[in-house]
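Bumping with the actual sequence this time:
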Amino acid sequence: MLQGLVYQKLLPFDTVLMDTWYAVNNLMLYIDSLDKIFYCPLKTNRLVDDTFGQEKYKNIESLSWSEDELSCGKIIKIKAFPAEKKVKLFRVTISTDRTDYVATNDISQSDTDVAQKVCKIRWKIEEFHREIKQLTGIESCQCRKGRLQRNHNEECDVSLAETKKFSL
């Protein structure tokens, strides 16, 4: 899908937002090779190194953070990344009992608040995607052409209207 956006549709974009499900080494490296920026939350058990090879890899949640690193992020190497490929990791406090760790290949990014705002945008997209699936049945639509998709949505609107009429 990403290849189609870049090479066939020529969609102009510079940043890719993804969920932890897609935060795999191959995809992150591929996005980086396209000269695109990515932001993705990493799971707490992901193995990383913040000592530049002086210590073994450890879980993200066991990293120590200085005050400066909490506000500006820290440079890390993710296990199985090429030796020269580093990413910036941000520790984002969501609530008193939840902390997310957000990685980006934008090493120049130096503000945890910006990383948190980017992740909020990603979450809004997730909410929209969930709602459109629930309201239109789009996940079961096998239509590829625009006109067929509009027809499918019109049928869903009629079904929804009929359901509301009988539930009154």
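The tokens above came from a reply further down the thread. The chain has five helices and seven strands.
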